[in-house]
Amino acid sequence: MLKINGALLTLLLTILGCAPAPQALAENGWQLSMVSASDNGVIEIGDKSRFEVVLKNISTEGKRFWKPTNSWGYYALYFDVQDSSGNVLKISKKAISWRKNAPTYMEMPGGGSFVFKANLADESWKMPELMAGKYKIKAVISVSADSKSKLLGVWTGKIESKDYLVLVSHY
Asked: Which residues contact 57 (CB under 8 A, 6 or more apart)?
């Protein structure tokens, strides 16, 4: 098995069904999608490549969401990778020590969105070992309820993007 890193592997993320504009799933008043900077709908994940995960508030009401600069929001975004046998592997943020960790949130108006910049080749992600081949990947945001989220009225729950196709190959 090969450990993913930018020098060894390229992941090509192509929308299942090859639709030019991916349709995101809507849950709990949210819509989550993965977006490529390329015109052809292909997202390359490697040393110099990046993609975006867009969280959109599709409700008419404003919502509060944890900022990704604190422990409540930092770990919220992760990715599920599924192989052809149905096994699911998780790509998540590595644990870090927090010198300053305040429960800060952003106000997201109805129709507003927030863009997560993702580069799975950087050292902040825990990457599973993947063999070359085809996989499915989806973005997941999960926020557990706690005393701070209840006190501050910050959204809690889980939202997933649609599945995308990932091709893993050597550089």
From this structure: 29, 30, 63, 108, 109, 110, 111, 112, 113
Q: What is the DSSP string of 64-132?
A: EEE-TTSHHHHTTEEEEEE-TTS-EEEEEEPP---SS----EEEE-TT-EEEEEE-TTSTTEE--EE-S
Instruction: Dump pLDDT digits (tens) for 73-102.
Output: 999 999 999 988 999 999 999 999 999 999
Q: Name the amino acid, one letter, at 1.
A: M
- Cβ 58 vs Cβ 111: under 8 Å: yes
Nearest Cα neighbor of 49 from 166, 143, 152 is: 166
pLDDT in tens, 126-140: 988 877 777 888 999
Residue 129 sits at the vertex; the CA angle it makes with 126 and 133, to the nearest 5 degrees, is: 125
Residues in Cβ contact with 96 at an 8 Å cutoff, skipping those fewer than 6 apart = 74, 124
